[in-house]
Amino acid sequence: MTQGHQNLLLLSNSTAPGRAYLEHARDAILQALDGRRSIVFVPFALADHDGYTDTVRRALEPLGITVRGAHEGTPRDLVAEAEAVFVGGGNTFRLVKAIHEAGLISVVRARVAEGMPYVGSSAGTNVATPSLRTTNDMPIVQPPSFETFGLVPFQINPHYLDPDPASTHQGETREERLTQFLEENDVPVLAMREGTWLRVSDGSMRLGGVTTGARVFCRGSEPVEVPSGADVTWLVERVGAFEVGR
């Protein structure tokens, strides 16, 4: 895919404490839409497609954006004709199963290559990467493949939480889980904290949002801190490979 044609907004999260749904990212969404006034929303990460789509309508229609759910017709046809697409968060395994069954992988890739804006949040951001392997979610269903849209060539881990030295939790930290991923795969991971997003446009990739920023995990090296506002286009220069072993 030609990176220069991409217009992506990949949000770590859709809600922020004390703020309405998508309120923290409204300006970024409008910038990504670049004057477009309709969007097809993909609600398949949650079970209640109608209710989820209504939530998005209430958030975006006051901004002058018409919202139609991908389930309100033939999903593949609606996405093929859409001005823009928004893929919402929820369970990534359920979302990946649904996008494969609906035949959305190839059509989303083709439309994004043409310059159609793609907005993702949480699970919708996970599926913008090559694989669901760095999701935080429980595998409540079994998709036919871990393959996702691959709109960026690296992995993303939304909702990233830093290790808490005072925590009494005995399970793996997020850092430990991503380190385990890199033991088996040689693919960089952009771990985005809450309130952070990745903006891809005009051939560049830049972090946006609040000042919490992100961390980049690469096989064989220590995680690198990346502040909000930083250019992370360099991530595309690293060719990754899955299941390469140790």
Describe it for me?
It is built from seven helices and eleven strands. It is an alpha/beta fold. It has a single domain (3-237), classed as Rossmann fold (3-Layer(aba) Sandwich), CATH 3.40.50. The protein has a seven-stranded mixed beta sheet with strand order 3-2-4-5-1-8-9. Strands 6-7-10-11 form a four-stranded mixed beta sheet. Helix 2 links the parallel strand 2 (38-42) and strand 3 (66-69). The radius of gyration is 17 Å and the shape is globular.
- The average pLDDT value, as a whole number, equals 94
Strand fraction band? Answer: 15-25%
CATH superfamily: Class I glutamine amidotransferase (GATase) domain
Number of DSSP strand runs? 11
Q: What is the radius of gyration?
A: 17 Å
Describe the secondary-structure layout.
Elements: E1 7-11, H1 26-33, E2 38-42, H2 49-60, E3 66-69, H3 75-80, E4 85-87, H4 92-101, H5 104-113, E5 118-121, H6 123-126, E6 155-157, H7 174-184, E7 189-192, E8 196-201, E9 204-209, E10 214-217, E11 224-226
